[in-house]
Protein 1
Amino acid sequence: MIAGSFFSGALDYNSREVQNILMIGLGGGIISNYFSTMEMLKLNITVVDIDPVMKKIAEKWYEFDPKPMKRIIVDDGLRFIREANKRGEIYDVLLVDVCYNEHRALMAPVEDFLIDEEIKEIYKILKPDDALLFEEEEELMA
């Protein structure tokens, strides 16, 4: 997902301008932490996760350190996107890494992110020609 953000052209490694990243799904905070090590870039990172426990885990065990340009918001990702649209927020890249907590054929992304109306909302917060990257996990048949 990190490499895809740059290879897609959504993020520019040589830019000195602020680049806005929205991540839906925190995990342990490893991806956002990695982005924050790119100190030569001005990356404004917003991470949204529905589970407050994930925020606590990221802060305690994965050294997530909130800063003015790096934050975790506990909220439903799709609700956050709809509200971001109302506020007129625009992001350079959106990384969606949300999955089910149960075994199923399609683990990620959760199906709500595949609904046409939600996809339209998602694209409204992206700049033209920027990227939406999904983490996709399927059950493998042996």
Protein 2
Amino acid sequence: MSFVVAAPEVLTSAARDLESIGSALNEAHAAAAGSTTGVLAAGADEVSGAIATLFSGHGQAFQALSTQAASFHQQFVQTLTGGAGAYALAEAANASPLQTLEQDVLGVINAPTEALLGRPLIGNGVPGAPGQTGGAGGLLYGNGGAGGNGLPGQIGGNGGPAGLIGSGGTGGMGGAGAAGGTGGTGGWLYGNGGVGGQGGAALAGINGGLPGHGGTGGNAVLFGTGGAGGQGGTGLTGANGVNPTVNSTAATGAPGSDVVVGNANATGVNGGAGADGGLGAAGGTGGLGGGADVTGTGNARAGSGGPGGAGGNGGAGGAGGTAATSSGEADGGAAGNGTVALAPGGAGGAGGFGGVAESGHGAAFGHSGGSAGDGGAGAPGGTGGVGGAGGDGGRGGLLVGSGGAGGAGGTGGVGGSGAAGGPGGTGGFGGFAMSSGGGSATAGDGAAGGAGGIGGAGGTGGAGGSGGHGGAAGLIGAGGDGGIAGTGGVGGLGGVGGPGGQGGPGGFSQAAPGNSGFGGYGGNGGHGGTGGTGGNGGGSGIGGVGGPGGLLFGGPGTNGAAGPGGSGGSGGSGGGFGIHGDGGAGSTQDGGNGNDGSPGAQGPSGQHG
């Protein structure tokens, strides 16, 4: 019975299978009992009765034997299950003492060297605290501990060195914007260098927004391969486009002077232009056109409203002046036009109101509304940052060992998204016309709404980082391959086009019975702005140079390949259409409604890097 090996889980599984087989047999025996233990005679004669008695006796004997077999089967299953449990208990009881024995033995062996040199004789080094070097491996045998990952802005800890035999620890990952830790040195006699830690991703406000480079791979000493360099950190994401806030409005233009006469023609003075506001303020509203008032007989022509001033948001046009005459033709003043927004995402200026015309005995003509300004294009997204460089591979063993591969370059940052285009201005209202005597009245038409601004272009993705150089081999060995260049960053999304402005409503008219009164037509809605162009994908970085081969034997490493360029960003959605202006009411004929504007087109996607 020496060297008995038992697998408790296998015994338990076998016991369950046997129990299932026994249950199936018991069910089959029970199903057959009724028809085999009480066989009916085929006829009333003595021979048939004897045959039935014979077969019934055999069936009853079989059932008795089956009952004994089932009892034995159940006892066997219980015995097998108990044996599996006993083996499991014995195994669990032996495991803890053996583990304790192993720990006790290693504790006795390592105690002198830990007391004298601060490191064990046999065993792996402990991982480092954040940003700290990993513990050293055992003097005779053991791997170095991994370096601790860095906190934001903190370099990752270096991997711990190995002892006589063992591999160096892996370098810790750099915190945001910081380099990865260097891999630990391999064993003095034999062992590979540790892998360099990955560089930290870029973060605004830390290290100038630059990513960390990958850590250098650890060196081998006599025999062993150098550690691979760590990958560079990801570049900074480009800032999203932000349209400036327009907080104030420039001064309104000076109003035109009113002119009042008796029996003569009168012409009002035009209103002045609104003041310019610069990028930070809306343009001023144009001045009101001067009125023209004829108290007797004569034609009245009102002054024009001034144009809106230039500004971050376009200035609104001034309203045309009112013309009034007791007997003669009355012409309302022309409305001032709204101006185009100068600031990114600014709103177009609204058109001014058409001038009102009133005549006692004569024709009256209201003026059309002023044209609306277009919205400003959205601010573009920022360019993504360059990816971090990959770490260089470690040197191979001095006697025999290949150099470590260079680390891959980091991925370029994603381009920022473009901002939305500004809304188009509202079209000016048509001027009213009223004639109370023998003349027609024709109201002014509403003006079209301004077009929405184009969405801001997405930012270009950042270029991928350069690959690390391959490590050099020793006397015999191949040079490490250069690291692959990082992938270019994805281009940013184009901004949404601005909505079109609403068309101005037509003016209403009122004429005396028997005279024509025509309402003004409503203005068309402005077209939605085209979506912004998606940002171009970032270009690839440069692959690392392969390390030199061994001095006696071994070829150089292969240069790293260029990484793929980043994908271009998607274009922005087009802006919504402007709603039409309603036609004005007329005493004879109403004006027709304007047409809705068309929605803006989808912006084109950016080019792949």
Protein 3
Amino acid sequence: MTAKIILSTDPGIDDAMAIIFLSKLNTLEAIWTTMGNNTIENVTNNATKILELMNKTEIPIIRG
């Protein structure tokens, strides 16, 4: 059985690697962006760009 993950993240370089890893494993159910190292707008844009580059745009992004 494969676990499904909803990732709460503020995508900088470290979290970008986590998104890439989890999306390649097909375990990423959704991404919930949170303000941390940057503004909510920037981290949401980062998550969107990462999923676009990975061809995983079917994964929903929830702006938190």
Protein 4
Amino acid sequence: MIVLEIKRSKLGKLRRLDPEYYNPELLRLEKSLEGALSLGDFVDIRVGRTMNSDIKKGEFHYIKTGDFKEGGVDLGQCFRADNINGVDLKVSDIVITRKGSVGNAWLVNVQGGGALISSEVFRLRAIEDALIDSSYLAAYLESFYGQAQILRLQSGMSIMSISQADLRNVKVVFVGNKDEIAREYKLASDLLVESDKLNKLAEELFNDSVLFEKGGSNLRSGFKVGISEIKKNDNFDAQFFIIRSAIKNVVLLNEISEICSGTEVGVTNYQDGGVQFMRVGNITKCGFINKSQQYISKQLFQELKERYQPKQNEVLLTKDGTPGVAMVVTGDIDAIISGGIVRLKVGSSNISPYYIALSLSSKYGQEQIRALVGGSNIKHLKIKDIGRIKIPILSIEIMEEIAKLVQKSIKLRKRGLRLKKEVIKNIRI
């Protein structure tokens, strides 16, 4: 155990008592950055506002800390709000989380222009006439130098946060290859935007095809839904009932895939390195993320891999905690899945795992899952209920087109994330 002794005289005016503030490595970094410009010298920093928001109402996306994903913000899951004295965004602004998971940064793109931010988030906008490239600044804030300073300046007990004044004091260094870093970071951001566009195209093609196949388009003129149906489905969303009524040809998930549950290894088998133990928080519809990652020994992996290792072209689906998150395994993964995840081993040659994952992530799939979820404290799906989820069967051509769009979206996203990490790593002082 390492013990740091700090004299009272060294506490200064802040009287900070949290150990991280006096981390020797962070103190050395602070000293090395003396004389550098502060973020507040050339950037206007605003805190967002707490506003009434609703997932189905409002003209603008309303960004909170929970909307941040690896590589940016998931606008598709944002609540909506009306711009009544809200703090709005423009292209090339930078958004950074101030509360909860502090320090996540996003360079605002065309899709995010006009969005609003909550009180959990800061907006950074270059002061007029300030010669600063927002792409470089976003990369710097995500680099070791930006994140280390934010880590030291954040405070709190159960929920961490950073103050506006402290963020202004973050030191910024402009390295010699800053223009190259800005270009590469912008390219990475553009790849991620293109990935999101392709995934949205796939979702739109799915919804439109479901509505127009088998005469579903006739429902656009109107239809009736009984109160009992609304109560049964706990849903008042017209689009859900339109899609559900339009679908004439479906298969159950257990008819086209083998559903294999994960396992629990126990915390005593966790270790600092080794083979990944995938938990619910590591699964997103965009792929695997290294978040609060746990590891097990290679020996234990060898014992468990036959039953619990994710294989190429399988679909991973979360069933506990946050049920209904689906991702495609693009290649065999040296990992073991936890009990909160199931593997869907797709058996039909006519139905791509990419199409199944998109169907599960769609409004139609998510509403089915929501209706099947049980549990008062921790939400969960039973294996038998997962098998009852209905997958719409469209024409082979349409399903293949949807699968190709999803597959291309995933490839672009991987390229964008890989490039972004390389760029951030190349910032050296």
